Amino acid sequence: MPGMCVIGLQWGDEAKGKLVDLLTERHDFVVRYQGGANAGHTVVAGGEKYKLSLIPSGIFNPRVQCVIAGGVVINPPSLIQEIDSLVGRGIKIDANLAISDRAHVIFPWHFIEDRAMNEGTADGESIGTTQRGIGPCYRDKVGRSYAIRLGDLYRDSIGQRVERIVATKRQMLAGLADVAELDAGKILAEYRGFAERLRPHVMDTTTVLLDALEAGRRVLFEGAQGALLDVDHGTFPFVTSSNSSGVGVCAGAGVPPRYVNRALGVVKAYCTRVGGGPFPTEQENDTGQHIRERGNEFGTVTKRPRRCGWFDAVAARYTARLSGVDTLAVMLLDVLSELDEIQVCTAYEIDGQRTANFPSHVDDLRRVKPVYETLAGWREEITDVKRIEDLPANARAYLERLSQLVGRPVEVVSVGPDRMQTMFSAQSALLVK
Ligand code: GDP
Ligand code: IMO
Ligand code: MG
Fold this sequence. Notes:
By secondary structure, the protein is of the alpha/beta class. It has helices at 16-23, 76-88, 108-117, 134-143, 158-173, 184-198, 205-214, 248-253, 286-294, 313-322, 362-367, 393-406, and strands at residues 3-8, 29-32, 41-45, 48-52, 65-68, 73-74, 97-100, 104-105, 202-203, 219-222, 262-268, 271-273, 307-309, 311-312, 327-331, 341-350, 353-355, 369-376, 410-414, 422-424. The mean pLDDT is 95.
């Protein structure tokens, strides 16, 4: 059973970082394989809180090899800052971090593009990106002509390339932004410096991972964002620019599907979304506000208030199937304590027809009316509960119903940000020994 992935099944921030940190114990490698510093993964360890953007959440276990694979887009100064800040807090980062030479590099022009265009849709509506240059960098990767990979920074041709790209970008962006800051010589000097700093970590991680998997080493693939933000299968165009559902693991990491043997789907006990796009179960009312405050639902990366709403089982069932999820981890259950009643969306109604299928077109998703089932809440605080069977009966009934609706057993339940506030089902094979 060498490969396992942890995938967010909603719109991101499902507490993937906390789970990956916990599961690291039973793995030899932890791999980030898509996205970039648009991700913000929180790990609370030994009373300390860490926010990771590009570094895999396995980094707190010095025995484990962390890998940033080729499908990730990297802004070198922010990666270096992240490394320095962790090292400054006593975390070991040396040969235990490998970075793919195939990963694409985010340059200042990508930030300008992300800001200037505000990455609106064709209809002019804002996607509300994290403004980290993610979309423009992936666009250049797919377009090829203006792309630079990390490995390119060590080649003699890099000077000419940067000059050519800067000249073109200055023309392309002239009407959109002040392009004066795009100075090829300055950018080149800076990025050569970043490349030297990162050199000890940069390698062909595809070969590293293939060697590891073929030798039966245990590899944990850490998804970023959530499956509903998947560029192909999410709520397009209100998505990120990579395959953030389970289908993205192989392409991003460079490993064949046969090695991804197990998928853990991560959900919050409710739903949140940052940025634009439809959100059928959104609660723009006191309930939404209550969840936001109790769950401290403000973006890890951009600090934006997250939009909050009820659990959407139609969406979660779709993304659990899409991602090949075996079992579920239900996170932030404690946030729902103190509610008299909890609603769960069990189906959608569209044009008077009921459906359990998630629409493929965003316009249809906008038109759906969620069909809710009301469950009784619980008043007890549950943050100190240690076993799933010791949760209040209504909390257990809630978990049971989510499991039925999504069609997957609940294997993990989280009732607080700390490692200790995590419970595994009696049948779980994930118990950390
Ligand atoms: P990620 O992007 O999926 O790793 O999630 P984030 O780190 O962006 O957001 C999850 C937030 O919830 C973080 O602030 C965590 O510390 C916090 N958290 C994780 N699990 C729990 C939980 O069970 N209960 C509560 N109240 N907070 C949690
Ligand atoms: P983690 O890994 C939540 C959202 C942005 C925006 C859309 C596109 O912490 O779960 P982008 O900058 O990627 O072009 O923005 O995607 N988004 C996230 N939302 N969690 C994330 O990551 C996200 N990464 C991107 O808010 O709506
Ligand atoms: Mg996050």
